[in-house]
Amino acid sequence: MQTVPNFYHIPTAIDKDTAELIQRQMKDKQLETSLFHTGIEDKKIRNSQHHWISTDSWIAGMLKHFIEVANNNLFHYDLTKWSEQIQYTVYDGPSSHYTWHRDIKESSIFGPGTVAKLSITLFLNDPSEYEGGEFQLMFGGDTHMHTMKPPIGTAIIFPATSRHRLRPLRSGKRTSLVAWMGGPPFR
Fold it and tell me: Whole-angstrom Cα distance, residue 39 to residue 61?
């Protein structure tokens, strides 16, 4: 029996110029130390920085389109709204990483009753700009792992219940956009 990956890959055609535009818009923003999604700061679990982007920005509109395409073609979840703001994430230098985790949680920003259902990562660097930093995603009941270091502008959409991680960087800087679309709790 063949296992079908439970993620959706979109080569978005976002080029280096668009990725650099996003990065320039974030350049003067204050970056925060990223926490584990339970609110814990532990560099052994997660070593990165981020800036929150409003869900009414042009960036959110672009990510929403990619999620809707993936949802219509593969997942068919009941999605109603962003479960949090968009996260511009920076992994910079050796040992920047995020260990295995799942994104599903009750939303704390947009009120109770909204559960993160689909996660999206949009890669904003060419893989030649950093060493290490591979994105790994478990699927098939955590029995199969897919390792990715995709080209700039690639979007990966996957269930928020899927375990995933970012392997440690050995050098360079890796930036991405990360977001979660939610809806009523699963039945």
Answer: 27
